[in-house]
Amino acid sequence: LCCSEITTIEGIIWRAKFSLIEVIADASKEIKEKLITFVDKLSRLINCETEFSMIVDDPSGNSFIENPNPEKIDTQLTTIHYHRSLQQEKLLGLVADDVEESNDEDAPPVWESREAIRNEVLHFSVDCPNCLKQAETNMKFINIPYFKEVIIMATCCEQCGHRTNEVKSASGIAERGVKLTLHVVDPCDLTRDVLKSENCFLYIPELELEVGMGIVGSKFTTVEGLLKSLKETFENQSYFSLGDSALPDQQQRMRTFLEKLDQASQGKFSYHLIFDDPSGNSYIESLTAPNPDSKLKVEFYERSWEQNEELGLNDMNTENYSSEAEKPPETCS
């Protein structure tokens, strides 16, 4: 009846009604009576004189029906995700017209809700960053208690054996940055879960350690696992401090540092682990949540202009976009 548009349920029915009214005059007597009867039914639906169900079946997956209370479950709306048939793939131009139906008997799963997707490990193919051949990535939604939902992705290439894993926030960049300070004083602190985003800076003042966002990527692990990963990263990347070209005092300094980092991962002395994340997407587990943790300090702060620039937020214009676009260019006098 119409092309893609943003409208209401009432608007859809009105459009269908007017489209039918336009053809009634040219219809035969028998068809005209049926059309008039059907138009009357549409009028009753518009006036909410009877209950009805409206079904939107969109093979492209690009249709949406509003939830009037998005913070609550919409009991009147049912959403079902399905895998397209071959005919639908052809209609959308996703496959060639000469592709034939597969004989596979194993039907793909049908996700009846967003919760069903969250409870399942999703799989998709990517190009391996090491050998550029096809590799499979596993993706899973994880809800971290007292924090937020994150997406964990792991890729393993069967061709070259290359493995990668990363963690992404499912909610984007937070309104404010966060600074987390954990005082590690006993072995139980090493078992705390931590989420370090790709934008997070890491500090351990007792070791004079400062790690920028580009040294270690996003990780969801424990305090112990994070420190061991840091040690491994420094060992693999400190070519000029541990290699044959390094001076003896440089080698000794790096070995001493790595030894202290190893001791820290074993909890042999107390220290402070600091996360400074402008994106607000890093997390250190509290052992007393939801009550305050005496060994964990959480500080939220407003980002500086430079931090917003680093996150690419300064160039984003989400308010009055059309009015900004319509402004005429300034002329030089």
Q: Give the biggest sheet.
A: 5 strands, antiparallel
Average pLDDT taken over every residue: 83
Largest sheet strand order: 8-7-10-5-12
What fraction strand? 15-25%
Q: Under the CATH scheme, which architecture of the largest domain would be assigned?
A: Sandwich
Kindly provide the radius of gyration, computed on alpha-carbon positions and rounded to a whole number of angstroms. 29 Å
Low-confidence stretches: 323-327
State the separation between the terminal residues, measured CA to CA.
53 Å
- Domain tally: 3
- The total count of strands amounts to 12
Which fold name fills CATH's third level, the topology of the largest domain? Jelly Rolls
| CATH hierarchy class name of the largest domain | Mainly Beta
Alpha-beta content class: alpha+beta
Protein name: Zinc finger protein ZPR1
Domain Zinc finger ZPR1-type: 126-286
Family: Belongs to the ZPR1 family.
GO molecular function, one term: zinc ion binding
